[in-house]
Amino acid sequence: MTHRSLHLISRDIRNDWKTPYAPAVPYIKAMSQLNQVTDKYITEPGDEIVLRFLTNAAAWRGDTARRVKAELNKILKEHAQ
């Protein structure tokens, strides 16, 4: 189960989503401190952070958004197996 580090994915999100939906911002920041969904940010599990980001990222649109959301969903699916 190898995938890009969450901090790299977070960088792509910040570079593409110039004015993110405010409730998504804490999760983007938290992902910037993580490598894998098995890591924790303070006491929050990485998989919960990714899930909450996705929940708050509905307004993020475009090719990069679709690619990154699909990548994050794939990571969560692989983690759940």
Structure description:
The protein is mainly alpha-helical. It has one domain (6-80). Helices cover 57% and strands 5% of the residues. The chain is built from 4 helices and 2 strands. It has helices at 6-16, 25-31, 46-55, 63-80; strands spanning 40-41, 44-45. Strands 1-2 form a two-stranded antiparallel ribbon. α2 packs antiparallel against α3 and α3 (46-55) packs antiparallel against α4. The longest helix has 18 residues, at 63-80. The termini are close together. The model has no long low-confidence stretch (mean pLDDT 96).
Short description:
With 81 residues, the chain is mainly alpha-helical. The chain is built from four helices and two strands, in the order H-H-E-E-H-H.
Give the helices and strands, then pairings.
Layout: H1 6-16, H2 25-31, E1 40-41, E2 44-45, H3 46-55, H4 63-80
Antiparallel strand pairs: 1-2
Helix pairs in contact: 2-3, 3-4
How would a crystallographer describe the biggest sheet? Answer: 2 strands, antiparallel
In helices, the fraction of residues equals: 55-70%
Per DSSP, the total helix count is 4
User: What distance separates the N and C termini?
Assistant: 10 Å
Report low-confidence residues grouped into runs of 5 or more. Answer: none
Overall tally of domains: 1
- Strand line-up across the major sheet: 1-2
Strand content: under 5%
> Over all CA atoms, what is the radius of gyration?
11 Å
| Overall average pLDDT | 96
Q: What is the chain-wise order of helices and strands?
A: HHEEHH
- Count of extended strands: 2
Instruction: Find the structural class using helix and strand composition.
Output: mainly alpha
What characteristic shape results from the CA principal axes? globular
